[in-house]
Structure formats: structure tokens, C-alpha cells
Amino acid sequence: MTGLMLALTLAALDQNIVATALPQIVSDLGGLAHLSWVVTAFLVASTSTAPLYGKLSDMYGRKPAFMVSIVVFLAGSALCGQARGMVGLIGFRAVQGIGAGGLITLAQTTIGDLVTPRERGRYQGLFAAVFAACSVAGPLLGGIITQALSWRWIFYVNIPVGAAALVLIGVGLKQRPPRRAHRIDLAGAALLIGATSCTLLMLSWGGSVYPWASAPVIGPALAAVVLFVLLVRTERRAAEPILPPPLFADRVFVLGTAGIGFAAMALFAAVIFLPLFFQLVMGASPTTAGLLLAPLMGGVIVSSFGGGRLVSATGRYKTITLAGLAAATLSFLVMAWAGQSGGGVWPIEAALVLLGLGIGLTTPNLTTAIQSAVRRADLGAATSATAFFRSLGGALGVALAGAILTMRLHSLLPGGHGGAALLTGGVSRIATLPRAQHDLVVFAYRHALATTFLAGAAITALAFFSVLFLPERQLTGG
């Protein structure tokens, strides 16, 4: 269990520890135009490979898949620390992502092997609490390490932690011998990685790097559609598919993954754009803006841990999950009202606590429901598919919120006011604008961000209705 927690900590920290070091990385390596790829390369690689690790662990065992994912992740970390240029760093981040694709997926899947369905809620909740704590600690730790040592040490620090996880998992996790020969679905794996990569590139580029209607965005979108169609046809004929089609005939799996995907859409959009709201609209410093997100993660930690224990005690998960999604929907409505009316920071902080409590009651409990509904032979594939759709939902949420934000800003800052020029500056440049222009920009951002919060309420409402039709099956074990 300690090894699993360390592996999860590695993956959770590395998703956001890099953010605060990016300015210094650009200062040392150059390549400002490629800065977003430092994050995108990791996201594409980790999301694309998660289902592959799940299926391989079903075929050959959790232990070898886990060992490979940790070794690849550590190799990528060491290479990132040695990078001498931006292109090299981006490539090494992709290597890191290939390893990270197995860390969260295999940690959650292994819990499904080690404990009974009823006890899984407690451990999945504990894992969600660790993930949330790392989400808070990541940016702060990244800033501290970069300032005290160097940005390279945010990658080197992974090595001793990962080595400890490798030893503990190697000693503690027992390998089950394979019962029969297996065939790897290479065609399915290639199509899944290609389709996912095209989807994430389209979402990462659209509306930010390139216009949505441009060829660099439309091209990957069309390619993703074609590759997903081919993937469906291939998986139906494959002897041992990466994504077993019977999973998508199970209502618990389909509605559960839909609920997790929608919840991730809303949460990721909030986490990305709330710091902008705090800095630009509320006038907070970057450090203060990061600390103002702590109540959100605090709520996730408390409810993940407490909700998981409640599910383990009762064997029921649906009512608890519905209550969480209702709370999350209400919290987004409160944030939209506070943003629109200028209600101050305290209503938003209270709403963030409520949002954290709601999300913490959702994702771990739905993961437990899905794991309990599928066959043991498909446990790894089902858990990795859940992680896949959560990551995809998060990327889609950020892209959707960004598109809504940009659209509202352009409608509130028409060309007659020089709106396009005002929107090209960052927070520091906006602060230096003349008073009239500054107030106009802040007004526009206030109302535009409030609109994204309303979109978050709509998305969590969709998650609520997905779970409302979810069949509840009594969890067994004690």
C-alpha cells in the first residue's frame, strides 16, 4: 500500500509541479513558442497509454506492468533534468508521460485486486485524498524547488521517491502466473493512441494556439473521428481487445464513466481559470491565488476519505454520489453569482469548499462502482478506461471553458474599444493600463469567467443525471 501511494504521489505531483517552473525553464532553454508542449506532450502520452497499461496488466499481471511504468517514468524524469533545449525537454516529457500513464491506473486497479468490493470505497477515497493534496502541494513545491535549487530538481526529486515505490511494490506485490497465452491487440493500441493524440491536440490548440476553424485544428479533429471509427471496428474483431466491447454494454460502466468524465470537465475548468479570476478580478498575487484554491482541495480530501469510509460501511454508493454532484452544481451557481455581482472572495471560498466536498464524493465512489460491476478479467481494462475518460473529460473541460471565455470577452470588448489589443496582454500588463481601460477589462473578465462557472454548473448537472440512472449494486465483502 505504501508503494502504491508513492506511485500515485509521483503521477499526481508531476501533473502540476511543472507549471510554476515554466517561466524559468523558458528563461534557460528558450523556445517560448513551444512552451505549451511541455504540458501537452505529457498529457497526450499519459492519457493515450493508460488503457494499454490496464489491458496489459490484465494479461500479464499488475506487477510487471507497474514496474515497467515506474522505470519508464523515472528514466523520463532523469532525461528531463538533463535537457539542454526545449525540443529535447518536450520529447523527454513525452517519455515521462508514457510511464505516468500506468501509475494512477495501476494503483487503482491493484486496489481492486487486494480488497473486497465493499472495502474499495475506503481505499479509493484515500487515493483521491492523496491526489487532491498533491494538487495543492505541486505548484507550491515546484516554486520552492525552482527558487531554492533549480527547475531541473523538480524532475530529479522523482527519482528517490520512485525508487522507493519500485522496491516496495517489487517486494510486497505478489505476481500471479498467467493461466494461458495472450495476444496483444497491437492494432487497437495504435488506433487508440492515434485517436487520443489527435483529440488532445485538437483540444489543446483550438481557440488558443490556432482558431477553431483553422486547418491545424480541423485536421486532427477529422483524423480523430476516422481513427475512433476504425478503433470500434477493430475492437469488435480483436481476440483480446484493449477496450473490451462488452464493457460498453454494462450500464454501470457507461453511466459511471460518463459521470466521472463530466465531473472532471467541470473540475479541471475551475482549477485552470479560478487563479485568473483571483489575480485579475480580485487583485490577488500569484502565490495568494494558489493558496485561495486550497479550500477546494481541502474539501476533496475530507469528503474522499470520509465518503469512502461511508461507502465501505454501508455498501451503497449512489445516494452519496448524487449528493456530491448536487453540491458541486450548487457551488458553481454560487461562484457564477458571486463573480457576476462582485460578491467578494468569501462566497467563492465557501463555494470552493462545497465543490471540493462534492467532487470528493463522486470520482472515487464511481470508480468503486465500476470495479465492482465488471469481471475480474476486465478489471484493469475497466479501471484504465475510467482514467482515460477522466483525462479526456478534463482536457475537454479546459478547452470548452477557454472557448466560452474567449467568446464572451470578445462580445464584451468590441473592436471599437480596442478589445483585441487589450486581450493580448497578461495580468501584469493589464494592471498597467489606464484606469478606464483597466476597469473595462476587469468588467469583461468578471462576466466572462462567471459564464464559465455557469457552464460548470450545467456540466455537473449532466453528471448528476448520468448517475441518477445508474443501477446500484450492493457491494460485497467487509
Task: Identify the notable features of this structure and list them briefly.
single chain; mainly alpha; 3 domains; Growth Hormone, Chain: A; 478 residues
Blueprint of the fold:
Elements: H1 2-16, H2 22-29, H3 35-60, H4 62-81, H5 86-114, H6 117-148, H7 153-156, H8 158-172, H9 186-205, H10 215-237, H11 251-281, H12 286-292, H13 294-314, H14 318-341, H15 345-360, H16 363-373, H17 379-412, H18 419-423, H19 427-431, H20 435-468
Give the helix/strand class.
Answer: mainly alpha
Instruction: Please indicate the count of domains.
Output: 3
Secondary structure: helix percent: over 70%
Succession of helices and strands = HHHHHHHHHHHHHHHHHHHH
* Mean pLDDT over all positions: 78
- Assign the CATH topology of the largest domain: Growth Hormone, Chain: A
Oligomer: single chain
- Largest pleated sheet: none
Q: Sum up the overall morphology in one term.
A: globular
Number of strands: 0
- Tell me the span between the first and last alpha carbons: 18 Å
Name the CATH homologous superfamily of the largest domain: MFS general substrate transporter like domains
CATH class of the largest domain: Mainly Alpha
- Provide the low-confidence segments as ranges: 416-422
Q: What would you report as the Rg, rounded to the nearest angstrom?
A: 22 Å
Architecture of the largest domain, according to CATH? Answer: Up-down Bundle
Describe the structure.
- The chain has 478 residues and is mainly alpha-helical.
- It folds into three domains: 1-183, MFS general substrate transporter like domains (Growth Hormone, Chain: A, Up-down Bundle), CATH 1.20.1250.20; 186-238, no CATH class; 246-478, Growth Hormone, Chain: A (Up-down Bundle), CATH 1.20.1250.
- It has 20 helices and no strands.
- The protein has helices at 2-16, 22-29, 35-60, 62-81, 86-114, 117-148, 153-156, 158-172, 186-205, 215-237, 251-281, 286-292, 294-314, 318-341, 345-360, 363-373, 379-412, 419-423, 427-431, 435-468.
- Helix 5 (86-114) packs across helix 17.
- The longest helix has 34 residues, at 379-412.
- The radius of gyration is 22 Å and the shape is globular.
- The two termini are 18 Å apart.
- The model is unreliable at 416-422 (pLDDT under 50).
